[in-house]
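Narrative of activities, Objective 1.

The group set out to show that a structural description can be obtained from nothing but a protein's sequence at a throughput compatible with the screening campaign. Below is one input-output pair from the validation batch, recorded exactly as produced.
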Amino acid sequence: MSSPPLPAAYAPIDPRPDRENFGIADLCDEFGVTARALRFYEDEGLIAPERRGTARVYSHRDRARLAWILRGKRVGFSLSEIRELLDLYDLGDGRRSQRSATIARCRERIALLEAQKHDIDAAIAELIQFISLVEPTIADQKD
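Output recorded for this entry:
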């Protein structure tokens, strides 16, 4: 049985050579975000759409950065961490620095999540043990 396709915000994005640019509605629909979220990312300097009058016109670069932002948020990166990693794209080293920094940050995040998972598993085990101690008391009180 195959898995349902991932929403665009979860999957690597496909290139769109058929489009030169995108409107706010295009990106909202594709990524399942609100216009308010896009304007927030713009205010934070994470994306930089061109302005044509009052309309925002997003480039392929903005689209790719938005996908990156959403993935970073989903795995728990802060906006400042996301900004730092996005900014490494422009160093002109073939994205070597960006990839290296991203791998390091991802490994750090994995270690943190593994530790949290261990703590959660321990808490669950303790709660199960506590229930096993308390349940017989309730049964004794019914008699």
